[in-house]
Amino acid sequence: MAINLNQPVKPNLQNLTKYLEQVNNSSWYTNFGPLHQQLTKRLEEYLGVSNLLLVSNGTLALQVAYKALGITNALTTPFSFVATASSLIWENIEISFSDIDKDSYNLCPEMAELAISLDSNIDAIVATHVYGNPCNVVAFDQVANRHDVKIIYDAAHAFGVNVGDQSVLNFGDASTLSFHATKVFHTVEGGAIVFKHKADFERAKRLINFGIDTTNGAITEAGINAKLNEYQCAVGLTILDDIENVIAHRKKLFNAYRDGLQFIVEMPAWHKQANFNGAYMPIKLQDIEQRNLIESVLKEHGVQCRRYFTPSLQSIFNDKKVFSEQHSLSLAENVLCLPLHYYMSIDDVESVTLLIRKQLSKGSVV
Ligand SMILES: Cc1ncc(COP(=O)(O)O)c(C=O)c1O
Fold it and tell me: Is residue 84 in contact with ligand 1, taking CB distance under 6 Å?
């Protein structure tokens, strides 16, 4: 058996060629070209959002969002991919950490509020919807109103996730997406920012184009180049044509895992009003010994898994202020992500599940 942790969705070559012909015929390769416009419109419709700005990756999406919103001092989560925190540091934004909720693995609003009440310089919260599981967005809205701070969600994992009848991307001042090849939806490399306010979107659109205002050519401030090119938009459009199938299949695999493992291991408590997008399959083991055991058994059978996320980010950026950290430290040791991608079958999931069940049921009744 050999099962990869992840495998990018391959764009259908026949369909991709049709889009690429459009690019060649237009001779418009980048700078907000026709496919960029098409992909923006179709993503806004599909996701149920407005003010969506395509950018060249999910890390720049975060950096540009911070700049557009004028963030200077952010409280963030220690339990995320390194880019959530490193993008802040790269932008010379002061950062501090507070702990996650032990059940959802997302930044805890109560602990964030406590941190903000102790440090009045904090002007933003940067929280991740970890594994696509929405944060407590209503509680964060209330914290934002009480303390006049901006909220930015790193929604790199949350493509196609809703809270009730709303896209999760409609909460906060901005949400960022990653369209990296391993994500549910991708453009090889790429990303997007969804802004609450049109004015922030307009500023960010100038920022990703060297600070140039495309309506009159004026340079309004120092910008960067973070545009998504037409060839990558062609990949995005091809994959978007088939996204319902991709997500449906990933969800089927995710549900099969959950059915097979629900009484064996813990999993993050999912937001009660949210759907799943099947982005990741995290499991929480009891302790480091159990985690090592499962890691080595899976490896022995050719099954890739990943400790995602580890280490807890305050231990990498260890000169930063930490308000609380207990749950993040422990989850960074005990969580493993199991293989989940479009080219896996239910049989694959059952094989992985069986390996884990066999190990963890030794000496106990399952
Ligand atoms: C939570 C999170 N934030 C940010 C990023 C960075 O996105 P990108 O690789 O598109 O720069 C990732 C990528 O995996 C991620 O998982």
Answer: yes
154 Cβ inside 6 Å of ligand 1: yes
Cis amide prior to 309 (ω within 30 degrees): yes
Q: Which atom of ligand 1 is nearest to the CA of 60?
A: 11
Q: How many domains does the chain have?
A: 2
Top mutation candidate among 6, 55, 57, 59 for ligand 1, by most atoms within 8 Å of CB: 59
Residue 366 has pLDDT above 70, yes or no: no
To 10 degrees, the CA torsion angle through 61, 64, 69, 72? 110
Predicted TM-score (pTM) above 0.90: yes
**Rounded average pLDDT over 69-76:** 98
Where does a domain end: 198, 221, 241?
241
141 and 230 share one domain: yes
325-337 confidence digits (pLDDT tens): 999 999 999 999 9
Residue 128 Cβ inside 6 Å of ligand 1? The answer reads yes
Query: What's the rounded mean pLDDT across residues 76-92?
Result: 98
Whole-angstrom distance, CA of residue 203 vs CA of residue 36: 18
**Confidence (pLDDT) at 365:** 44
